[in-house]
């Protein structure tokens, strides 16, 4: 064996054996998913494992009795038909047990999939927003999601291996009683096949790991090539050829890699299978020889032939199953690594509740921030105050830190330097969940939930999902009530086209629904990131006619490029290069003749 191949082979096995350490934590997850069905399945498998030996033993006695009756002219034993009935009972029990085991496996598969999927969703919801900026995290998340369903076979294989092991032990005892060395020969002939299959299974895992980024690209291209959002541009710009070519290129690359490995596995598998078969038929020939020479009876020959065949098959299955479990344990590394990711933004053990009411407001004190993997400072020694009952508008060109400020004030991120205070206490001292309950945010890239209209509003404060009056009041304040009144099923209308009888909305109509979420949430801080970007001029005017009413008793932070909107704020803050360039009222900033005045004149000129 070449040196590199030798190192790869044993290196792969070391990694595979280390991965078996994943089994204890995974078994804890397995047990939590359905203890009763697991106990029932294991009990059934243990009983089923004894059936082969019992049937062979009864069959041996039946055959010897029949041979003695026909060749030696002995009287037919009265127990023969009872033995036949007993063998039938064992066969029937085996069939019933197999069905019962299948039933338990089916129940377990559903319970395990549900349990792991819920855990993945719950854990993903707790992770920092920053991890979603990392492409390698998406690979890990994708593999973790796959584990929720693809590893069921491994868990079931562990139960099957236990059943096979008990069967092999009982059959081996029978073989050992008549011919001890036969068992050793069979095992030695099967071991190379086990090692070979394990080696190629490990190579398959390594290949699957390397292909994860390409498979994510394929998934993206599939969605892009058949989604409502992309359909218009695909047709107008004739992009289908580009997408199909790129998909074909990636899929062909994956296919070629898979075929190359499959061919190598086929060549090795043929040789190793022949070696395994030679062990079985060598033992079978030896049993026939001893029967011909009179050392064994016909019944014993039948017993040993059946036991050797069953033991050989089960030993081979055990090796293959163990190899599979070892290799599947490598995949479980991805799942456990995902669960091992811990959020950095979390509540301290003795975290404070958010202040009710907020008395002195928020203060940014020389805050610096850059996104992971990017050295550019989005906020650079940034200082800023937001006081109770104050309405502040943030403006500036794209990339100047407006939305970043929102992410920091809501503690979706922590600053890399400087501090943010709420009522004079560092934001990190407060309970994160309670802090979020005091903030209502509508981001520019708000979600369009493919749920009912009522649920779309209720996500703003999910505890109020069944309080229709409050949902409708929020819809009225955001002008969404008029939109919903035109829908066939009103508030119970499914929105979006993903599900049956769903109705899609225009961009402006969706935005009114999103605004209703913010108004439903009884929060002390209201943040609106481009809240009227998709609204027509009349709707925008109606929304901001009530702007004072909607923000009464609240702090309001407004991000907008429309100067007709921002001029309604108490204070306007102009951001440039991660710092405050100008701030003041609309009239004050116009009189300064600075950056705000320049941007205002540029926008106003387009309406003249």
Structure overview:
- The protein has 608 residues and is of the alpha/beta class.
- The protein folds into three domains: 319 residues, Up-down Bundle (ABC transporter transmembrane region fold), CATH 1.20.1560; 132 residues, P-loop containing nucleotide triphosphate hydrolases (Rossmann fold), CATH 3.40.50; 76 residues, no CATH class.
- It contains 22 helices and ten strands.
- A six-stranded mixed sheet has the order 6-7-8-3-9-10, sandwiched between helices. It has a four-stranded antiparallel sheet with strand order 2-1-4-5, with helices on one face.
- The longest helix has 53 residues.
Key traits:
3 domains; ABC transporter transmembrane region fold; alpha/beta; elongated; single chain; four-stranded antiparallel beta sheet
| Percent strand | 5-15%
- The first-level CATH class of the largest domain is given as Mainly Alpha
The biggest sheet amounts to:
6 strands, mixed
Low-confidence stretches: 5-10
Proportion in helices: 55-70%
- The CATH architecture designation of the largest domain is Up-down Bundle
C-alpha-based Rg, rounded: 35 Å
Classification by helices and strands? alpha/beta
> What would the average pLDDT be, to the nearest integer?
79
What is the distance, rounded to the nearest whole angstrom, between the alpha carbons of the first and last residues?
A: 82 Å
The count of DSSP E runs of length 2 or more, i.e. the number of strands, is: 10
Per DSSP, the total helix count is 22
**C-alpha geometry:** elongated
CATH superfamily name of the largest domain?
ABC transporter type 1, transmembrane domain
Number of domains: 3
CATH topology of the largest domain: ABC transporter transmembrane region fold
Q: What order do the strands of the largest sheet run in, or round the barrel if closed?
A: 6-7-8-3-9-10
């Amino acid at each position: 064996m070449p040196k590199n191949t030798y190192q790869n082979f044993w290196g792969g096995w070391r990694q595979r054996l280390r991965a078996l350490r994943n089994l204890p934590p995974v078994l804890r997850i397995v047990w939590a998913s359905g203890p009763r069905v697991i106990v029932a399945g294991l009990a059934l498998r243990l009983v089923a494992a004894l059936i082969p030996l019992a049937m062979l033993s009864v069959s041996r006695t039946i055959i010897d009795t029949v041979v003695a009756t026909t060749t030696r002219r002995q009287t037919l034993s009265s127990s023969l038909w009872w033995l036949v009935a007993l063998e039938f009972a064992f066969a029937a029990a085996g069939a019933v047990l197999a069905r019962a085991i299948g039933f338990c496996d089916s129940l377990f598969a559903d319970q395990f999939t549900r349990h792991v999927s819920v855990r993945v969703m719950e854990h993903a919801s707790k992770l920092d927003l920053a991890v979603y900026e990392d492409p390698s995290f998406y690979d890990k998340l994708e593999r973790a999601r796959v584990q929720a369903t693809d590893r069921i076979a491994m868990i079931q294989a562990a139960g099957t291996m236990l059943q096979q092991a008990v069967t092999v032990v009982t059959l081996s005892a029978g073989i050992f009683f008549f011919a001890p060395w036969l068992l050793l020969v069979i095992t030695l002939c099967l071991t190379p096949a086990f090692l070979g299959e394990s080696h190629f299974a490990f190579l398959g895992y390594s290949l699957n790991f390397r292909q994860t980024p390409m498979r994510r690209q394929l998934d993206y291209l599939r969605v892009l090539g058949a989604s409502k959002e992309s359909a218009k541009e695909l047709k107008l710009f004739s992009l289908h050829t580009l997408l199909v070519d790129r998909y074909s290129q990636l899929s062909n690359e994956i296919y070629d890699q898979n075929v190359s490995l499959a061919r190598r596995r086929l060549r090795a598998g043929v040789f190793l299978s022949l070696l395994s078969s030679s062990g079985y038929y060598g033992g079978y020939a030896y049993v026939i020889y001893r029967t011909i020479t009179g050392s064994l009876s016909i019944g014993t020959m039948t017993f040993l032939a059946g036991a050797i065949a069953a033991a050989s098959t089960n030993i081979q299955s055990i090796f293959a199953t163990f190899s599979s479990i070892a290799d599947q344990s490598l995949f479980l590394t991805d799942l456990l690594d995902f669960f091992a990711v811990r959020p950095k933004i979390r509540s301290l053990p003795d975290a404070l509740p958010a202040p009710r009411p907020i008395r002195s407001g928020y203060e940014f004190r020389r805050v610096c921030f850059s996104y992971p993997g990017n050295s550019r400072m989005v906020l650079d020694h940034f200082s800023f105050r937001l006081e109770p009952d104050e309405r502040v508008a943030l403006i500036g060109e794209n990339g100047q830190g407006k939305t970043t400020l929102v992410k920091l004030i809501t503690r979706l991120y922590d600053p890399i330097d400087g501090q943010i205070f709420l009522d004079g206490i560092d934001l990190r001292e407060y309970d994160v969940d309670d802090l979020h309950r005091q903030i209502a945010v509508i981001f520019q890239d708000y979600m369009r939930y493919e749920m009912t209209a009522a649920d779309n509003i209720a996500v703003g404060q999910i505890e109020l999902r069944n309080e229709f009056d409050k949902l409708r009041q929020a819809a009225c304040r955001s002008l969404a009530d008029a939109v919903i009144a035109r829908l066939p099923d009103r508030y119970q209308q499914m929105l979006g086209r993903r599900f049956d009888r769903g109705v899609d909305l225009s961009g402006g109509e969706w935005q009114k629904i999103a605004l209703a979420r913010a108004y439903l949430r009884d929060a002390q801080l209201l943040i609106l990131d481009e809240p009227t970007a998709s609204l027509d001029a009349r709707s925008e005017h109606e929304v901001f006619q009530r702007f004072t009413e909607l923000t009464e008793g609240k702090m309001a932070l407004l991000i907008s490029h429309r100067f007709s909107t921002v001029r309604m704020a108490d204070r306007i803050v102009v951001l440039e290069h991660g710092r405050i360039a100008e701030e003041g009222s609309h009239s004050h900033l116009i009189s300064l003749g600075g950056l705000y005045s320049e941007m205002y004149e540029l926008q106003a000129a387009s309406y003249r």
